[in-house]
Amino acid sequence: MPPRRALSGHDSAVWLAYVRDAKIAPLAGAAADWMTQTPEPPPPAKPETRQATTRASKAGSVRAHEVAIGLPPGGLDRATWSRLKNGRMPVQRRVDLHGQTVQEAFDTFVRAVLHGVDAGERCIEVITGRGMNSGGAIRHEFPHWVNNGLVRRHILAASHPSPTNAG
């Protein structure tokens, strides 16, 4: 049997308070000096010093609670992430944003995500297109959209299209 470890000051104080409140008496002939001890006050709570985990991306660092396009998220196993980023994940809803203004595309995207959640869909493919003159305004705004408060809690991961699909 391993040796008994001594109680910390806080644990000892909690135990003494319990024994006194429950009116527990020691066994006959047992030393009761521990019952006359005054409990030490619990140590002051230490402030939380943990910092948010960050991942480096090509665009800089990303806070852990944000979805970073193309980076594996926590909570998703390696095989599922591989299927998602390589285009082998079964798509349950496809949203094509070609020909829409940025605002129309954003509204369509939000509706599609919320309808997908209601329908229990796990994978939604969003087609942004490459853009004609502006270099893809929708494509440029998309990382901001997946981190928008309206839909962020419903999105676990986002990936660039597979190499065989450029849009």
Indicate the proportion of strand residues. Answer: 5-15%
Topology as H/E string? HEEHEHEH
Strand order of the largest sheet: 1-2
The parts where pLDDT drops under 50 for at least 5 residues are: 52-64
Helical content band: 25-40%
Assembly of the depicted chains: single chain
Mean pLDDT: 77
DSSP summary, beta strand count? 4
> How can the largest sheet be summarized?
2 strands, antiparallel
Gap between N and C termini: 66 Å
Question: What does the radius of gyration come to?
Answer: 28 Å
Helical/strand content category: alpha+beta
Q: So how many helices? A: 4
Give the overall shape, derived from the CA principal axes: elongated
Keywords:
4 helices, 167 residues, two-stranded antiparallel sheet, alpha+beta, two-stranded parallel sheet, 10% strand
Describe the structure.
The structure is a single chain. By secondary structure, this protein is of the alpha+beta class. The chain is built from four helices and four strands. A two-stranded antiparallel sheet has the order 1-2. Strands 3-4 form a two-stranded parallel sheet. β1 (54-57) and β2 (60-63) form a beta hairpin. It is elongated. It starts with 8 loop residues before the first helix and ends in a 21-residue tail after the last helix. The model is unreliable at 52-64 (pLDDT under 50).
